[in-house]
Amino acid sequence: MFAIGATLNMVLIPALNEEASIGALVGAAGAVTAAPVVVIDDGSTDDTAALARAAGATVLSLPLNLGAWGAIQTGLRYAAKSQWPLAVTLDADGQHEAESIDALTAPILAGEADVVIGACPGRLSLARRIAWHYLRWLGGISLDDITSGFRAYNRSAIEYLASSEATLLDYQDVGVLMLLRRRGFRTIEVAVPMQPRQYGSSRVFDSWWTVGSYMAQTTVLCLARLGSGRGWARRRHYRRGDSRCAS
Known about the structure:
Layout lengths: L9 E6 L6 H9 L6 E5 L6 H7 L3 E4 L5 H15 L4 E4 L11 H9 L5 E5 L6 H14 L11 E4 H7 L12 H9 L4 E5 L16 H17 L5 H7 L11
Parallel strand pairs: 1-2, 1-4, 2-3, 5-7
Antiparallel strand pairs: 4-6, 5-6
């Protein structure tokens, strides 16, 4: 049974070998939305897809591993094809709390934003804070939590990010923010609580080699678009509320 006040936010959860957390997350998300909970199984070799389906999710099984952004874009294309008005992305590792979904969608429903990011920069280690500061400076991005995968998109943003123009990305972070900025989408942050990952490993931080590759790719991406609407973007991006994690 849906919770009173449940809203029509399609929930998209990209997942790769997240059998330890996916069932509980699908159940929690299903309790706060009257829309489908969609798990995009990015080639898992464990029981992620079966457990997600058993918990009530619609499962989109990819024939091969497309990576973090490929899986999310698959979900966004599904939402666009279904003409869904709102979509919320959650990480499958249990860091994001489904109870915060309404906090993310509220600014969109109020007409204040096109995209909302659940922000909790306080969770970052010193090394990550330094890295994010560097990428924010290089990309001209005035948001705090640039790698948060907890995001809400309105219909226009869904359709734009589902287009071929957004295909050649690897992650749902800096590249997506720069595309949104270039097209004038209003992007804001809301402070939300986040939990530490308890199972599995991050796709970005599973090894120093992966971290180095991520930083190199993102640096090139920022340099390629450096100066594109930089000052204009600062007018369009603004923060909502406290940048610290909500208690």
